[in-house]
Amino acid sequence: MSRTIRTATVLAAALALFASACGSGGDSKDSDSKESNEGAVTSVEDAKGAVVQIVAEGEFRDPEVGTVSGGGSGSGFIIDPSGLIVTNNHVVTGAGSLKVYVGGDDDDIPAEVVGVSECNDLAVIKLDDEGPWPYFQFASEVPSPPADVFALGFPLGDPEYTATKGVISKAEADGESNWASVASVIEHDANIQPGNSGGPLVNDEAEVVGVNYSSYSNDSTTTQQFFAINSELAEKVTDELQDGDELSIGVNGTAVADEESGLAGVWVNAVDAGGPAKKAGVLPGDIITNLNGVQLDSGSMEEYCDVLRSASEGDAVSIRVLRFDTSEELEGELFSDKTLETTYSFATELADEVEQSSGDPIPASDYVTVQDATGRISTGIPGQWSDVDPSSQDLLGLGAPQPTLMAAPSLAAFNSDSGPGIVVVVADGVEPSAENLALVVDSFVEGAGCTESERGDFDNGSLVGPLALLDCSPNVGVVLAAQSASAPGSIVLFAGLAQTEDDLAVLDQAVSALSVS
Prior knowledge:
Layout: H1 10-18, H2 31-36, E1 51-62, E2 66-78, E3 84-87, H3 89-92, E4 97-102, E5 109-117, E6 122-127, E7 148-153, E8 162-173, E9 185-188, E10 200-202, E11 208-218, E12 223-230, H4 231-241, E13 251-257, E14 264-271, H5 276-280, E15 286-291, E16 294-295, H6 302-310, E17 317-323, E18 328-334, E19 341-342, H7 346-349, E20 367-371, E21 377-382, E22 387-389, E23 404-408, H8 411-415, E24 421-428, H9 434-448, E25 451-459, E26 463-472, E27 475-484, E28 487-498, H10 501-512, E29 515-516
């Protein structure tokens, strides 16, 4: 699925960060008007006055086009006479200001965020005007195919109100995407366009049966599919959001998994100024690679949201991010006072021991993913490191070949300690006890032909174990023996050699992108 708001222009790329729709409605804060239904919309013909266009202004970091400043627009709908509105998380999170145009009116009304849910891509905001306003009610049940439905909203950023008709084709569709993890999604064919996201999908009586959420198109088959969060889930979540955030750390994020570079995680498009992520030090442009010990490498938000759904209220949640601007890996905690700090970096710790690099650092776009022959080891290296040996070997003297991956500009130079490179080994059947981890480091250092200069502890959330630094003059080497949650019965060995600062950065990236099973 792709968000309905994605277009090719730079400004539209910014809109794509805010305009994936979600919504929901809850119990009215004015119980008397709720009971009497006074002011409730009862027909599609009269629905326009309760549909809104939302313009969000701010600065966002798009993974494709970089920093984008400007405004993006989405749709929404009023669910209460006091001016409560449903839209999506992407419309509001990270925005510096929100302007709402009700029913196609030329005059905007400021609004403030009441609560958001990143995982359900739903948000509730409130107009800075008590009204009373006409409002929608949620349908008592989700209709079955092929019930007639109408999609209402303001597509393409146009202030002109639009209504399109279609039918529900599927009552339960897949709601997993790269920006949310929604349990209950309706598939329908009422045409929606960029900017419809967040608008209501209604039945003949103008009851909300869903919140328009995304679209999918296949150019080769001219297939078009449209999706909406169903009313049962939307109403339940909206009730909760009227009391504050739910399943949210305060980011506007997009899951990424780039096979060529090996980079994976949740790209932070924008950060809520008052949210837990901001308090921990997360910035737009960061990539969240690990949350509470779970690697976020699937390219969807399912893992991310599973962590948030499993976390108990008030508990600290560990977080690790990759910050491209400074080539740093940082870790800290959400919902605590432990802000992000730089984790161990070869490029930082060993920069004085190697030659300075000439020219610009190797860009992320130059990285590719490589695997060993068994498929159990995967990491990212520059495309220039094209000499790769994926064959299993017995480098640790265990009496049988173990999954092994070697990569370098020249493996011959690497094996003679005269050129940069890396080697990764998964030693099966060896208990990753502290004693065995130390023995593996000792054994590998002894055979490396270099002098050990320092030993310490390494912990990046995925790999934990002893790390030895080597003097392989004029080069430097690293040897890490670690236990990994993804391969609990094995020892993971990582060793690397560097001549320049660029080589150290490669070692950092290779460790960060390393995946074993």
